[in-house]
Amino acid sequence: MNDPFFEKINNIEWFSNCGKEFSISDFPFKIQFLSSLDEMQKNISSQKWEDFTLEATNRLTVYLHKNNRNNYLDWNRITEIKKSNLKHVETTAKKFAEKHNLDKNIVDDVLWNVLGAAMEDYYISINKRIPIFFKHLLEIYSRGNIPCGVIGNIKEDFDGNQIKFSDFVLLVY
């Protein structure tokens, strides 16, 4: 594989601390911890969370389109390359979901978020000013927890601006 990003990803102890609280310094979001799998499943499957993560991706692509057009044109090719490295994460998420009798939404969400982090990792090497979101979620996953929702409403942004994290509370299981 030889992709340092995925070498790091594949060494995460996925889901090992779910339901346990932790402290994290210099994290841009306020965090609210959830205490049950049911709460996590409800939030991770919510339209609000899906819309939020989709808006984060949209902000990245808008930014690239406006500021790095040539690199933006490679988006689909880079996405396919990054997706091809998600097998370990997918297998691990499926095992967790099956073990806890959870629906497929958790697997899809984890894959979407890790792919988003992989895309940010790739594009930040080209332009340090890209809006980031998913790399912060990766910090939560790397602690063995699951980011699974948000309190606050996000508005569409057509300029590719960074999400103002202080306006939101991240839900974590």
Sheet with most strands: 3 strands, mixed
Q: Which series of helices and strands comes N to C?
A: HEHHHHHHHEE
Determine the fraction of residues in helical runs and give it as a percent range.
Answer: 40-55%
Average pLDDT works out at 95
Percent range for β-strand residues: 5-15%
* Helix run count: 8
User: How is the quaternary structure best described?
Assistant: single chain
Decide which structural class fits the backbone: mainly alpha
Uncertain regions: pLDDT < 50 for 5+ in a row?
A: none
Query: How far is it from the N-terminal to the C-terminal residue, by CA?
Result: 30 Å
- Largest sheet strand order: 1-3-2
Alpha-carbon Rg, integer? 16 Å
Extended strand count? 3
The gross shape turns out to be globular
Please describe what this structure looks like.
- 52% of the residues lie in helices and 8% in strands.
- The protein contains eight helices and three strands; from the N terminus they run H-E-H-H-H-H-H-H-H-E-E.
- Helix 3 runs parallel beside helix 7, helix 5 crosses helix 7 and helix 6 runs antiparallel to helix 7.
- The relative contact order is 0.24.
- The model has no long low-confidence stretch (mean pLDDT 95).
